[in-house]
Amino acid sequence: MTFQGFVFSEETSTLTDDEFARACTVLDWSDEAITRRDAMAAEYPKSVPVILPDAGWHPESQPSFELDGTTHNAQTSYRLLARRERDIVRKMRLYGHSFTGYQLATLDLAERRPWVSRKLPDDWDNTLRFLAGRPDQSVLDYVSVAGALPERLRARPPRKFGEIGWLIDGTIVSDDTQSYQERLCLMYENGLIDLLDRRLAERSPLRVVEIGGGYGGLAYHLMNAFERKLRYAIVDIPESLAFAGIYLSTLFPELDNVFVGESGPIELPDTPGFTFIANMDHGRLNLGGSDADLALNTLSLSEMSDAQIEDYCKAVSSWIGERGIFFEQNHQSNHQGPGNVPPRFLKLLHKCSSNLLSESFPMRRGDANFWVNATYRG
Predict the structure, then answer these.
(1) What is the domain extent for residue 369?
(2) Is residue 88 in a domain?
(3) Any idea what DSSP says for residue 327?
């Protein structure tokens, strides 16, 4: 693979009038979902520990060190996006470090930087010209892993929303790119991709449910890897779904994309596309007796409260039935984590390993596992 320079945000942030209008519509939906969630919490106080953002996503959490002692977090990023300023929307990727732990705007781990809590200067690319030196270790890791995988499983982020990074054989590579490449690699090396290919030969589209889809990065790569033959549902807090909803509905406008409303059962259409479900509504998801082929969570279960972990794992058990697989990659923290979920919900099928990834796996992003329903007999 050949190094071809660096891609700056002005090269990847074109946004048409129609795309900006679509983004504003998604933000309207997110605002309405937040209002409805808050009303639900007021009416049903017992639901609060599950439906309101908590632990690492609590409005008062402080994941960054600020010199002035102020509090900035994922809610800060959502408020910036919700201003509906075109320059923020078109460079949305530079404001999404809460989802990946990597601050793309400064090419460094988010924990080492103050939170991006204000709109970046219009000439931010001039700052990047001082920050972007030689390709870092994540780029070298990407080259090593991507070159060993089938072409369809090479993570290639789109030239959209201000994506930046080192250009390697036409692919924009940063720590974020390598993060998604790692997950595709784990799925491939441990047999999940082959399993899904066999399922796809039996039924199309495949059904995928992701808990905590971030800005939509993994969903983007999987939708492309399976040639847009997925019905992909994302369950997340509305503040996060604003990012994923804008990202994915813009990049896949031709698909049947659904933003779930406030009442009635939620059914997944038998057409390729995305279904966006606010977290407090996931109990209405009805798969109609047809199991999800794949459920996913990466990096966010370990940032939730124990009550939320248990609630989601109970839901996953019902979604995957007897045939589905739950893939998760998380660091364990000072609570029960996904690995200690009561056995009435899920049981460990396989702990992932890799011959291709560097020694940073799993230290950097945590162990990866396949889970099945607790009643699984295979």
Answers:
(1) 180-373
(2) no
(3) E
d(CA 296, CA 303): 15
Does residue 253 lie within any of the structural domains? yes
Does residue 333 belong to any structural domain of this protein? yes
Burial class of residue 200 (count of CB atoms within 10 Å of its CB; 0-12, 13-18, 19+): middle
Provide the phi-psi class of 165: left if phi over 0, else alpha when psi is between -120 and 50, else beta.
left
Other CB atoms within a 10 A radius of the CB of residue 228 amount to 14
Is pTM beyond 0.90 here? yes
Strand, helix or coil at 252? coil
Q: What is the pLDDT of residue 376?
A: 76
**Contact predicate 30/239, CB 8 Å:** yes
What tens digit of pLDDT does each residue of 347-362 get?
A: 989 999 999 998 778 8
In a domain, 251, yes or no: yes
Taking the chain, what is the end-to-end CA distance rounded to the nearest angstrom? 42
**Amino acid in position 273:** G
The CATH number linked to 332 is 3.40.50.150
pLDDT tier for residue 338 given thresholds of 50, 70 and 90 = low
- ∠ CA 281-24-252, rounded to 5°: 75
The dihedral sign for the CA sequence 357, 363, 366, 371: positive
Residue 336 confidence (pLDDT)? 52
What tokens were used for 194?
């082959």
Total number of residues shown for the chain: 378
Number of structural domains, the chain? 1
Instruction: For residue 326, give Cα distances in angstroms to 219, 329, 346, 354.
Output: 15, 10, 9, 18
Which residue in the block uniquely carries the two structure tokens 């693979």?
1
What are the start-end ranges of the H helices in 134-272? Answer: 137-146, 175-189, 192-202, 217-225, 238-251
Structure tokens at 138: 């994540």
Q: What is the pLDDT of residues 225-235, one digit of tens each?
A: 999 999 999 99
| C-alpha–C-alpha distance, residues 166 and 174, integer Å | 7
Is residue 77 within 8 Å of residue 100, measured between CB atoms? no
Nearest to 319 by CA among 356, 289, 354: 289
Number of H helices and E strands in the chain, helices first, is 12, 15
Q: Is the peptide bond before 135 cis (omega within 30 degrees of 0)?
A: no
Neighbouring-strand partners of residue 232: 208, 274
